[in-house]
Amino acid sequence: MSLKQVDLSEEDLAFHKEVGLINRWWQSPKQSHVQRQIFHVIKAEKHRFGVHRPYTASDVASLRSSLGVEYPASVQALKLWSLLHEHRRNGTAEMTFGMIDPVMASQMEGQQTIYVSGALCAFSKADCIGQDMSDYPWDTVPKAASTIFKSQVYHDARQRQDRMRRSKEERATMSHARDYLLPIVADADMGFGSQTATMKLVKRLVEAGVAMFHLDDLSLSGKRFTDGGGHTVVSTREYLRRLGAARLQLDIMGAETLILCRCDIDGAQYITTDIDPRDHPYILGATVDVEPLASLGNASSARVKEWKRRAKVKTFDETVECNATEEQITEYHHLLKSKSVCSLQERQRIAGQVLKGKEVFFDWQSARTCDGRYLYSPSVQAILDRSLAAAPLGDATWARMDLIMDKLVKFHNEFRKVYPERLFACGYSATFPFPSMGYSDEDVKNFHRSLAKLGIVWQVQPGFALQGLNYTTKKFSSMFGEEGIGGYVRDIQEPAMKVDTDGYEKMQWSGGYITDAYGDLLAGL
Ligand SMILES: C[C@](O)(C(=O)O)[C@H](CC(=O)O)C(=O)O
User: Fold this and answer.
1) What is the DSSP-derived secondary structure letter of residue 490?
2) Which residue of 94, 295, 359, 381 shows the fewest CB atoms closer than 10 Å?
3) Which residues does Mg(2+) bind (predicted)?
């Protein structure tokens, strides 16, 4: 560090220039939708349908270093943005799968994006391997993404070198060049803690070359795929702050990386707080007077289930509906409709007015766990409310839902009434029982096409690198153990040599020729 004399006019000029550049950037085709979305929204409804950047270009400029840095992630993000919008216009979708291995990533010929899955990182990259509870170190996914991105750049360079060392005539006889630079989509989970933790994570993802990341509304440690305990989500406000922190970090970096707003309400059983009235319609309360849930201590999911049965838990609206006549229910909902957001206390007041003083027992405080979480009732409307509120802060939306077609259709159609050009994503669970959920073979065959028609332009099967590779490895392993090198040559070597696994020339993947080229260039020294 050294001291320098500051010329105040020059300092102001440079700053205002930067502010102007940011404002112009925010008017660009990729950025302007973040600003524009607000115009779809009637002002009074802004609480429900969200707000865009809550800060100005000048605020952002003052947080930037004077050293302007441009990130390759932006190039990849713009490429992804065009790809996904093309799919949206055509009613088609990008189909990709979870990938954390650079060798395999380089062979993905049928995909135009790569997904770095947190679950796969938990199973094979983290130091402590285990079930995906989003509890691995926060920089695990950025590190995995960075390795893949660097490998993409390497393959792109070796391909160029290989082509450019040949004459035009020779290149004309070679098959197509490959696009190794597939935009990377990465799992940012819940942002790993405070706003600054989320900002650091986003910074690392951008530096790693990531084109889009998904950020969800689970609480820290709130992910559950274990005993059926159900996820815990944070309040709508905390979720928006997370997304806002991510957007701010991208703005500070001047990065185009897309934010995929993921909402995990569908599998939620708890919410951390009742502070945000937007969450109130979905908070459950006891409708009979029983001992508080917290008095059970750290209860197993079976005991919580049993308590919920005894306490006859319901949402407040369901409770009113059980205590009112048809006309009263209509009047109650009519009065609710006049408010964009209505807290539980306000609902109680309206119910009192409609039911003419008839007592309705509803205790949502007694339905809290011993660590203070509230019971929560997910629904498509809850997912819609939250996802719409989040939309202006992100570029795409992923409502993580079970693959129930009616629910998917309702969510996406309702959402598109507010944001007609929205990009959507979805993930396939590796074990979803399509046949027992009533889908025919024909339905399953066309499933991805049906989702694409709803605007779900990015679809991922994160589990392939676990389920698919386990299956393939197991089969190969038994065969090789029994048949040895003869089986290897028959099943792997010969077919692999025939299909030219590297795309355009055999045995080129490791790029011996580019290493030779370095040597040749330095030979004169
Ligand atoms: C997509 C996901 O975030 C992942 O880490 O791959 C997981 C996948 C899974 O565990 O089924 C998720 O959807 O939460």
Assistant:
1) I
2) 359
3) 187
Residue of 97, 113, 116, 132 best suited for mutating to test ligand 1, as the one with most atoms within 8 Å of CB: 132
Residue 367: phi, psi to the nearest 5? -95, 35
pTM of the prediction?
0.94
> Topology of domain 8-273+378-462, per CATH?
TIM Barrel (3.20.20)
Each residue's pLDDT expressed in tens, for the chain with a length of 525 residues:
899 899 999 999 999 999 999 999 999 989 988 765 444 444 445 545 555 788 999 999 999 999 989 999 999 999 999 999 999 999 999 999 999 999 889 989 899 999 999 999 999 988 888 888 888 999 999 999 999 999 999 999 988 988 898 999 999 888 778 899 999 999 999 999 999 999 999 999 999 999 999 999 999 988 887 666 789 999 999 999 999 999 999 999 999 999 999 999 999 999 999 999 999 999 999 999 999 999 999 888 899 999 999 999 999 999 999 999 999 999 999 999 988 899 999 999 999 999 998 889 999 999 999 999 999 999 999 999 999 999 999 999 999 999 999 999 999 999 999 999 999 999 999 889 999 999 999 999 999 999 999 999 999 999 898 899 999 999 999 999 999 999 999 999 888 888 766 654 555 777 788 888 888 899 988
Question: Whose CA is closest to atom 12 on ligand 1?
Answer: 119
Pocket lining: 118 vs ligand 1, CB cutoff 6 Å: yes
Point out the annotated binding site. Answer: 187
Between CA 53 and CA 25 the distance in angstroms is 14
Measuring from atom 11 of ligand 1, which residue has the nearest CA? 429
| Paired tokens of 156 | 């792109």
CB of 98 shorter than 6 A to ligand 1: yes
Cα distances (angstroms) measured from residue 463 to each of 70, 237, 419: 33, 31, 30
